[in-house]
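Problem: given the chain below (206 residues), write out its structure.
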Amino acid sequence: MCKNGLLLAFALMFSTSLLSAQKTPGDSTSKSHFIGSSGFVLLNLIPQDNPPHFFQVNFGYWLTNKDVITIEAKTWTYRYPIGIPYGDSREAPEEVYPGKVRGVGIGLAYQRFLWKGLYSAVHASAWSQTYLNENNQKIQNGFQLFTALRLGYHIKLFKNRFFVEPSFAGTFWPINTNVPEVFSKKEDNWPNYFLVEPGLHFGFKF
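Solution.
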């Protein structure tokens, strides 16, 4: 995957949104629920040898015009330690697992609007991790607690029916249990956090 290109694209969308957004996000009380997803689902459409099989569904509720609570359900597959920063080591052959990890998670997010569309958010997700070998056979299951702090901007579209939210996040997974030894040897070389991760959420309000 072209990770540096994706980072640049998200940075451009984020800066453009700051210039184009005009109204506060919570000026309509008639549409207090939303359903949405993450722009990372588009990575499934990029031709590649190791697709992420990433899917996410968000269901949210506006508690006030500044406070939002969201339930997130998601799944994805990854083949190298997610703590590897941007650079040549990402997806380098020597860093790839002898297999892959398939995760299924459920999470909760709290979003607070700070000024117009500018917001901060905190996310916490519980993940069930299935470790598979190179023959796609299950080795064992594990558990991961994944957290994120996010700063983004809410852009309203089509008379506040739709929205997009470019953002950047710092992520941290303090709990990662029952990792197979052959996977752990790769994990031990990298931190259990990732800084400046781009994000792009979108949704439909009702």
